[in-house]
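Hi! If you just cloned this repository, the fastest way to understand the data is to look at a raw example. We've pasted two of them here, unedited. The first protein comes first, obviously.
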Amino acid sequence: MSVISSYPVTTIDLIALLDRLLALPAETELLEFKTAGTSFGIDDLGRYFSALSNEANLHRQDQAWLVFGVNDKRQVVGTQYRPSRPGLDSLKGEVAAKTSNNLSFIDIHEVAYAGQRLVLFEIPPALQGVPTAWQGHYYGRNGERLTALSLEKLERIRAQAAATRFEREIALKGQSAARVLELLDYSAFFRLFKLPLPTTQTGLLEKLAQRDMIQLRDAAYDITNLGALLFAQHLGDFERLGRKAIRLIFYQGRSKVRTLREVPALRGYALEFEGLVRTIGHLLPGNVETKVILREQTAPSYPPLVLSELIANALIHQDFLAQGASPQIDVFENRIEITNPGQPLIDERRFLDHAPRSRNELLAGAMRQLDMCEERGSGIDKVVQECEEHHLPAPRFESSEQFTRVVLFSARSFGEMDRQDKVRACYQHACLKQVSGESMTNQSLRERLGIAESNYPAASRIITDTIAAGLLKPVDPTSKSRKHARYLPYWA
């Protein structure tokens, strides 16, 4: 292990760490010594925080170090920087307020070394794909020198976003074997992955590690975000993930004025998933037999395949870097809204046909193996198809910089649908036909919306409105026949 990445927990550990740092031939991109008198300002501290945090990310280290009380010759001279403990503790909030993503120190350590007071700032690595900025500016290191973060380094950190492995980051460090098996529901892990249950504790832990649920380090175990997100007995046991639990809320009527009940879903996603689909189904009237995830049952007004696929999508595609936000399911009298934090990576109008892109590929892969969602790329197709087959209004896809939302509507007659409902149904029907190698026609749209054959002009008006909205185009623009014309989505 790198001398820089040693993780101190006691005064003895800190002194041993300082011995190793002072024995280095020179400062590094992960280590800075300062005498740092009282004149060392918060902006000085912030620039070093940004630089060392970015370098820790690039060097794949758990932390970098800023040490006060050592001069350029690596002589221990001590420091009077904020000599009172409250003065040091307040720095965490001061730094977090002016850094990107509200990053702050892992910890600030005071230690007496060689008869002098030293202060060690333990600085976390920049988040995957997100360089650490101080007041909007990015800093880095060139050997021992503080510099602006080079464009090459900036792009290297940002490029991680395409291959971010938030799932492999550590949710809880240094746990005993017994504690790991208390925190994670390992029996559900083996049952849902359809694996034989090992007869030894070592065998249990090896299988968890093979699936990236835990990592072995220094004779202890680290639980990964993936392991906690899927199999935590309680997500609140993991500080960074407590706010990522799914919220399921039922409302009276069609607004959020009156909440009927909120269903706790505080365990890992794999443990809560089936129950969420079942709970929604049990509280809605049944109407048709269908096969649902993991079992047979009478389906509610919303096909369980639609619910399970959209809930899974919300979990898979959420932005875990979004602060204080979690996936949420809001159930109203006439609709269900499924929302996840984060702007989608593709245009919501192209959800049905576009090759899928996920921020969280390991989570997505695990959930597919657990039969929590459809095969790659087929999910939204199935959602739209199921809505058509059950004569439900077309789902509405919405997005902003902060969230992605899908709205499922309960059954409505053609006469109860407004213009937007009809245009949305027409566009999605054309998309579904296109990805199936066919073209939409007036007749196929009538069948989709339950319009009588004699009323084909009504379907023609919807097609005209959808073309005017820029969502549809005729296969043959020169054709004079509306009844027999064929149509494509705008992107085809």
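Ok, and the second one:
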Amino acid sequence: MKTTQQPSFLDALIPLIFLVLLLAASVALYGGDSSYGPNQIVLLLATGVACLIGLKNGYKWQQLEDAMVHGISVSMGAIFILLAVGSLIGTWLLAGTVPTLIYYGLQILSPDWFYAAACLLSAIVAMSIGSSWTTAATVGVALMGIATGIGMSPAIAAGAVVSGAYFGDKISPLSETTNLAPAVSGSDLFDHIRHMLWTTVPAFVIALVLFTIMGFTEDSSAQEVSIGSVQETILATYNISLIHLLPLVVLVVMAIKKVPAFPAIFIGAIIGAVWGMVFQPELLARVAGGSSFVEVISVVWQAMFDGFSVTTGDENMDKLLSGGGMSSMLNTTWLIMTALMFGAVMEKLGLLAVFVKSILSAAKSSGSLVTATIGTAFGINVVTADQYMSLVMTGRMYREEYERRGLDNVNLSRALEDGGTITSPLIPWNTCGAYMAGVLLISPLEFWPYAFFNLINIVLAILFAYLGIKVLKKQPA
């Protein structure tokens, strides 16, 4: 029986160099549209290069194919959630839930304070329900709609939503990643959260200050006129009242009660469909071209699989009040599947472990070890395209080294979140980056410079590590 051989450093380097060069070419040629096909082809080609190295090292094709299938199977939960979110957005547009959020949001949110308020609101919701994804799909969609309606920058608005959502997610004991990081590293959940506050809170405060400055430096005179116009169009198109927010309330309650994300979001989509038939009969009849039961059901059905489309006479408002459907998430699903195929082959062949061995030999101090952990978590996020794989793989690779050096496990769990959880939405082909692009309708390539919390948190984490601030030693038993 033919045995497999250990990969060399060059073996590990070739697929990554190939991937980086082709991704750079993809962005240069297609810009913001690179995630709508070009990047998927790049990931497939890079997977092919990794497979060739695997065949050279003695692996059989069936082993590589099994690894790819397993890699995709890991993402199925995320794909189910994505499809459910597509239906939810479609029916909530039809039901008037999103337009109602936009309408009342325009009354409450001043353009000067919009970016800071969007960040803070996203943080509160994410902390309450423990999910950055659900926050982006609900409050985030409404905030992006408000930003578009009043002429604010979509890129900065998306950065504010992502910043707030990931801050709230990180410090919530309900969050999956906040529970996963200490579980992998061997630390206590609440010790982990308390230890994270040293980097997350200062980063969030700085982010709020920056968003406030950006809001006050924009010209709001034209935006005030735009606000009235948007509200008038919404009132002319929908029946607006607080009762239309009930689907959102039900979804938030289910999230707090820890109902699994996929059924909770899909139930929210169904409630939105029923709410639309009950409270928006005139709109549905106008869109359907008739008021018969069959015609109305046809529109609702289409909203779930292909989104909802409305005509207001204003092209910008039509874009604002239309969208959603499961079909809107198919490109994102395609991107996730191809990215995870590449990551699965890289892990199967042991190509990632080669880099970690080299890194550990160079990381002599505690500061350099924490920095190496953050860098590795980010790198695995890039290569495997999944934040869970980033947390688990990095935690497995470094836990023994932290214990050998007498460092408390909370140092590792915080570094995992700083390098893994925080960076995931900034990578276009990562499951989180692809999800945010699909929900907020803007590429991470455009909003990452404005995800202030995510960026500042990484800088503070590395700075604290080298200065020895809150790098805790193990307490004697």
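That's it. A detail worth noticing about the second one: DSSP finds 24 helices and no strands in the chain.
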